[in-house]
Amino acid sequence: MLSYLISRLLLIIPTLLIILTINFFIVQVAPGGPVDQAIAQLEMGPQLGAALLPGSELPTLNNHQIYRGAKGLDPQIIAAIEQQYGFDRPIWQRYIDTIKSFICFDFGNSFFKSESVTGLIIKSLPVSISLGLWSTLLIYMISIPLGIRKAVKDGSKFDFWSSMMIIIGYAIPSFLLAVLLIIVFAGSRYFDIFPLRGLMSANFAELDTWGKIKDYFWHICLPTIAMVTSGFASLTMLTKNAFLDEIRKQYVVTAKAKGLSNKQVLYRHVFRNATLLIVSGFPAAFIGILFTGALLIEIIFSLNGLGLLGYEAIISRDYPVIFGTLYIFTLIGLVTKLITDLTYMLIDPRIDFEAR
């Protein structure tokens, strides 16, 4: 297992390099970059332009005479803007500098937030991981027992009505359910039970340990419910089908013929074999919840997570933040996939990836 672990860890390096390379050149050649946005905002007025480039060494940026509206900007000002954002160098040089910095986990500074990308990611990552972990944990805690129960009671009324509820939950988009939860439970004319936004109260630092725990779960309750409701349907059906497939195999009949009870057969023999298929879906489920499904939830509940940070960076063409969040997304996804493969070996010792 050690040699397999080392080879997989080494494989992460070229995978990260390929993904970053493809996205770097796609983003760099896309129209509407930070230079174009800076020029457009400067042409809209001197006040806005000066605010866009704080600390600039261009004295003319603070001079109202640089505003020419439809006449455009002086070439010297445009050249200075390109130099400030690093676009005065060839694209291959910018690429090499980016890769060198990323090797050292140095993502540079944000173009528009006057803060390091690492600092922004450190602030945002706990929110996304917290929301993703709780959602994934609850989804698995609900889906696996429910899927096993549906497999055992296949064709019964319980199976039928639970399938109906699953279909309804799956059909409701998470962002729509989030809006509904806010309307009903977050300070509207119905109930004022949960907070409307954020992950902690304004007086969070003044609370004791127990108070901080309660405040945290109080804030994360509605976002988690919105994500879990539409997320457990596919895993439930996957669990049911996996257990049904195992229950119908010959070794189950043999185990029952030896006098083992249904619970012994189900949890001692069937569970291990059926769990492999369930574990295989964990990376996709976790990454999907963490970086895709949480995006709209973070926007609706004003949660400053990694998904919202990346979305705002794409809209504003904040390239350092885009590449920094992409780097973290990819790294977490690859590490999660590796952990999943190692879990296969722990669940079923017959699986040996080193032999392949």
UniProtKB/TrEMBL annotation:
Keywords recorded for this protein, A-Z: Cell inner membrane, Cell membrane, Membrane, Transmembrane, Transmembrane helix, Transport
Membrane topology, record value: Multi-pass membrane protein
Subcellular location: Cell inner membrane; Cell membrane
GO terms, biological process: microcin transport; transmembrane transport
Domain annotation ABC transmembrane type-1: ranges: 125-340
Pfam families in alphabetical order: BPD_transp_1
Sequence intervals crossing the membrane: 9-27, 127-148, 160-186, 216-239, 276-301, 321-340
Chief location category: membrane
InterPro entries, A to Z: MetI-like, MetI-like_sf
Record's GO cellular component terms: plasma membrane
Role according to the record: Probably part of a binding-protein-dependent transport system. Probably responsible for the translocation of the substrate across the membrane.
Family that this chain belongs to: Belongs to the binding-protein-dependent transport system permease family.
Protein name per its UniProtKB record: Inner membrane ABC transporter permease protein YejB
